[in-house]
Give the backbone structure.
Amino acid sequence: MNEFLDALTLARWQFGLTTLYHFLFVPLTIGLALLVAILQTAWVRTGKVKYLRLTKLYGKIFLINFAMGVVTGIVQEFQFGMNWSNYSRFVGDIFGAPLAMEGLIAFFFEATFIGLWIFGWDRLPKKIHLLTIWFVWIGSAASAYFILAANAFMQNPVGYQLNEERGRAELTDIGAVLMNPVALTQFPHTLFASLMFAATVMVAVAAWHLSRNQFVDEMRTSLRFGMWANIVGFAGVSLTGHSLGLVMTETQPMKMAAAEALYENATGADASFSIFSLGTPDGLHEIFSVRIPYLLSFLSTNTFNGTVEGINNLQAEYTELYCGAAGTNLTCPTDGSFTPIIWVTYWAFRWMIGLGALATLVSVVGLWITRKNRSVPQWAWKVAVWTAPLPMLASLVGWIFTEMGRQPWIVFGVMTTESAVSPGVPGWAVLVSLIVFTVVYGALAVVEFKLIVKAAQAGPPEIDTTDRAGEGGGNVDHTQLATVY
Amino acid sequence: MELTTVWFLIVGVLLVGYFILDGFDFGVGMALPFLGKDNVDRRVIINTIGPVWDLNETWLIVAGACLFAAFPEWYATMFSGFYLALLLILVALILRGVSFEFRHQGKGVQWTRWFDQFIFWGSLLPPLLWGTAFANLIQGVPIEPLEGGGWIFTGTLLTLLNPYGLLGGLTLLLLCFTHGLVFIALKTEGDIRVRARSLATKVGLITLVVAAAFLVWTVVQHLGDENALLVIVLAGLAAVSLVAGILFNLRAREGWAFTFNTLTIAFALLAIFMALFPYVMISSTDPAYSMTIEGAASSQMTLELMTWVAVFTLPLVLAYQAWTYWVFRKRISRTHIPSDELVGAH
């Protein structure tokens, strides 16, 4: 078969690209909703106009971003059926339930209250209006929970049994699906990562204005609030990341081994974590590395003398288990390999940690050098502006790690990715679809980025504080409409 | 009633909800070049759906997710089979959605014009393609069961483009167009309200001819079915509602006209669902290959769980969405849109 028209490869590329793209907007939405809600609460409680101006500024960035999150989200739902119909029919009984719950419980809620928040500034009482933005955040976080529960089923399938007659997996315990340990740890991990992402955007906007000495009062508040939020986010990400590592070692030991490129079992000091390593081109032999002894053992087992299973060992174990007597064509990959692409998992894992830590380092140093209104050199502001993409990139490589590290499985131990693809869709159709999404998404990314930069550079809007009670009360507020459509 | 039937109805209700709600959004988008003489008009038109288009579109996401959860076989076969149509729908929905937000954010007339084009085509294509897809569902498409479970669509990407399918698409497009025009008349004041009403009458009459042809064709195809009577009654109710909608619109009773247009869409789609019952996909290859509701459904446990979720959430959803419409009940007019110079000064 022509390699360029292999439906499986193309469908995987499409899923990877569209999912990462969607995930540019989701964490910013979740994170900014929280920060905007806090700012608006500060305004309602203190009455200080600077909080209102910040609410409006970051609210506008939030909205530009939210529209993209919604429309790219539909693609996510539809492509399970379009490109992965075997997967959809095989696990729909379990996987569909959290998706439907997400829609009915969370997404309706979020979409309704966002409309009320955007257009409701002058049509709702102040406190009710404040409540709507908190509801948006609650809805977006609940949404994330159900989606992560669905994803957790793919990482660590629980609460199901195989129905031989129907040729599919069926739900036996929704409690187990929703309380999947992977979901319970992945959820706070994602929320804290979202907070970091939104916080650095806030820091970058503030730094850009402060370096120009404009909106100083608002922007100092924004800067320090963003830096603290970033540090809180990083602390949360680290703690939950550690729990996630322990759960992962238990449920998907191959992914942990692939994160460290650990080929042979290792115990105690030998279970070291390499910060950097250089191998032969085939990846099998190490030339040079910088290692911290015991750290891999700690990350994987929470003790310093634990044993971490290596790739070779797991490969043999899985071959026996999934390609042996009990294996089926759904569980045995055609090339017999149960090992993910090691250089991808190895480096994605390191970049995720490194980029997140770097962003936080900037915040910690930043809080110190901006204390008590000290003057700050221009280069420091530049560094702060350029920190903005770091947590975003960390989120993306984090997802690359978690999804690529699961391969060759689409549902770990139950179904391989290659057996999940739609049987009736020709490769060229997927190619057309991949090209269309790449072009449309690419163009929209440029527009979106420009709009966010433009809104950010315009700074916090002037607030018309004149009393408009004489104008007939409940009428449509003209200025507000102008800022909407 | 079997839970599988209940879920067939719930998915049907969600889709009816989607086409009633996003249906007028589509119509509003299609009306943009016809009613929007200048940018102020166009902003009035877009702002009629401003606070609600997003939550209306959410109905599609929820309907899709419920289809996935309750009828995985149907979801998998239809979505992979109707590949090109769905790809176009997705692109249309993406461009339409971002355009509402992006059109006023850039500089220059050309920028706004581009996004107005996206709004128009992004509103026109989805009902056309969905209508085509639904018509094909009840007419039958080439599907056959696979060994080891599941069905496969054996047609090509152009299979859906047949006269009956296209007539179905045109019908839904026109229904949404009329629906949107009446919605604009209901939500605006002044000259634009009058023009919307007058265009709604004209488009309504064209819709009546096309929809009547489609409904008669549908009824004729399903005369032998056990549900034939129900299909005929529903199709008849759709036609009567459409006529009532046009008459009320003529007498400038926009609220009633909108109500009857809503009923038209509901009855027409229910007629399609009843024509489909007890199948979810009819096979044109061999009637024996058709996918039944039972054959497409999830396990009893999943359906029970989802029923509880739906029973608790849907009334709540309807309540807070109704409240949203209540909050934004006021009409919008040109005086609510600041002049473009003013916007530039902000």
